[in-house]
């Protein structure tokens, strides 16, 4: 039976995502009420610029005082789509203390302070939901938290940042420059307020920390995630990738070790074969593979950024939280009971593509191969190309078999010391084979 008293929703932030949340709440009001079992009412919208025209939002709902809004005491759910650490963190904890549950899209905050925020939600018997924080519209948090709660997840691998996928895709398919592609992604509402978070891999690392924590029932902090951005990926890297039948993607990879006792989480650009499903993920789309004991391999795919897609995930959480509230219940909180060790990047084992500038003279290949052998890194293929510019140098491209990151770093350090190695042009991991 439909309850007539509406559940009250406070919206914090009315930018790319918030404006779409408000629009869908209004245009789908009847359906949302039917699905929840009670109408939901937009009770207040906290903004920074009150003079901005916001179509469909009554002016009397707009406030610049987000703190007063979350302290009102009659708010059932606070939707936080401001972003950043403060004041979002304080507003969320204040909301719990004043009786509201929270839906957030804020991966930066959840990766940094997820444990404390979950604790605050628990103490106040409230919900904290954040499907939109990882891979935009794609249902991923809920499948991991709920659908796969009876299985054992061993690996989560995928593209979790729409902006960088958009840029890499443009660079690869149209030859567009980095800045031009980034400007377009920003105009389309994909990029973070400071796009450094996207291109330097902070955003994907935050998502990797959240995913690893949920997948492995272990607290994984942002600092535990090895992070490399994509600003140094060049047209030459794409050309090398093509020669190997690969393309380049910024990947997030969270893995359980073979003995099951530890996990790793990392974000970095990597070559993947063109035949791999991740190679055909275009634009701001995301795709994530989850591998588990019983289910085997699952793939989640869809829009990873943008106002409406992200609002879809926020609304899904809003419905779930409202239903919980009507039932006098809360959904699953943090699950970190496994408390596995989070190992450093040096323990990660994968393949590498290394491009060296070497002296074009006899014996160099043997010298380089010896350094690899001394560090226990087995070579799969080597390709040497003399250069036309007559500078006495050649390009040497080495692709290794699987080796630990620590062994590879040791190898590269030793290679740099060889007189015959003039420079290390690029090092890229090769994944998905
Ligand atoms: N844009 C996207 O594709 C996605 C964004 N997200 C996350 O959603 C959140 C919001 O992102 P966007 O909407 O893209 O950002 P945005 O920058 O378009 O919107 C944020 C809004 O919050 C307002 N704001 C900032 N401080 C405030 C305060 N103290 N009180 C009231 N309003 C305040 C800003 O003026 C701005 O209008 C962020 O946490 C972001 O990481 C998550 C998934 C996808
Ligand atoms: N900036 C992010 C937005 C979604 O999380 C991205 O590009 O993926
Ligand atoms: Na999602």
UniProtKB/TrEMBL annotation:
The keyword ATP-binding does not apply. Its EC number is 1.1.1.3. It comes from the Bacteria. One of its GO terms (molecular function) is metal ion binding. One of its GO terms (biological process) is methionine biosynthetic process. SUPFAM superfamilies: ACT-like, Glyceraldehyde-3-phosphate dehydrogenase-like, C-terminal domain, NAD(P)-binding Rossmann-fold domains. Keywords: Amino-acid biosynthesis, Metal-binding, Methionine biosynthesis, NAD, NADP, Oxidoreductase, Sodium, Threonine biosynthesis. It holds the Pfam family ACT. NADPH binds at residue 107. Its cofactor is a metal cation. Catalyzes the conversion of L-aspartate-beta-semialdehyde (L-Asa) to L-homoserine (L-Hse), the third step in the biosynthesis of threonine and methionine from aspartate. PANTHER family: HOMOSERINE DEHYDROGENASE. This is Homoserine dehydrogenase. The lineage of its organism: Bacteria, Bacillati, Actinomycetota, Actinomycetes, Kitasatosporales.
């Amino acid at each position: 039976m439909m309850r007539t008293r509406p559940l009250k929703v406070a919206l914090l932030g009315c930018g790319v995502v918030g404006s779409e949340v408000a629009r869908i709440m209004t245009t789908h009001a009847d359906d949302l009420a039917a699905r929840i079992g009670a109408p939901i009412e937009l009770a207040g919208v906290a903004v920074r610029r009150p003079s901005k025209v916001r179509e469909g939002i009554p002016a009397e709902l707009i406030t610049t005082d987000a703190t007063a809004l979350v302290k009102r005491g009659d708010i059932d759910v606070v939707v936080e789509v401001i972003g950043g650490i403060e004041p979002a963190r304080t507003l969320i904890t204040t909301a719990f203390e004043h009786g509201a549950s929270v839906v957030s899209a804020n991966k930066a905050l959840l990766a940094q302070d997820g444990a404390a925020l979950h604790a605050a939600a628990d103490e106040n018997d409230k919900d904290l939901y954040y499907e939109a924080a990882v891979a935009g519209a794609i249902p991923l948090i809920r499948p991991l938290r709920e659908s796969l709660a009876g299985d054992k997840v061993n690996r989560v691998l995928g593209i979790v940042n729409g902006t960088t996928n958009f840029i890499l895709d443009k660079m690869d398919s149209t030859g567009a420059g980095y800045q031009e592609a980034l400007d377009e992604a920003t105009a389309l509402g994909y990029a973070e307020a400071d796009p450094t978070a996207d291109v330097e891999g902070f955003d994907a690392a935050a998502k990797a920390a959240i995913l690893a924590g949920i997948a492995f029932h272990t607290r994984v902090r942002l600092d535990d995630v090895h992070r490399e951005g994509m600003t140094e990926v060049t047209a030459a890297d794409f050309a090398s990738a093509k020669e190997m039948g690969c393309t380049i993607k910024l990947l997030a990879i969270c893995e359980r070790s073979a003995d099951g006792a530890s996990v790793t989480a990392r974000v970095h650009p990597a070559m993947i074969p063109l035949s791999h499903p991740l190679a055909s993920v275009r634009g701001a789309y995301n795709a994530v593979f989850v591998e588990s004991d019983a289910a085997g391999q699952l793939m989640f795919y869809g829009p990873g950024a943008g106002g409406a897609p992200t609002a879809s995930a926020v609304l899904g959480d809003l419905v779930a939280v409202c239903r919980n509230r009507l039932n006098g219940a809360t959904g699953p909180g943090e699950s970190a009971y496994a408390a596995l060790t989070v190992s450093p990047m040096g323990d990660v084992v994968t393949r590498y593509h290394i491009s060296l500038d070497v002296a074009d003279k006899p014996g160099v290949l043997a010298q380089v191969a010896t350094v690899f052998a001394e560090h226990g890194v087995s070579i799969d293929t080597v390709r040497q190309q003399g250069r036309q510019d007559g500078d006495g140098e050649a390009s040497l491209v080495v692709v290794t078999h699987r080796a630990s990151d620590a062994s590879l770093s040791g190898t590269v350090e030793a290679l740099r010391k060889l007189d015959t190695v003039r420079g290390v042009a690029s090092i890229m991991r090769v994944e998905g084979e």
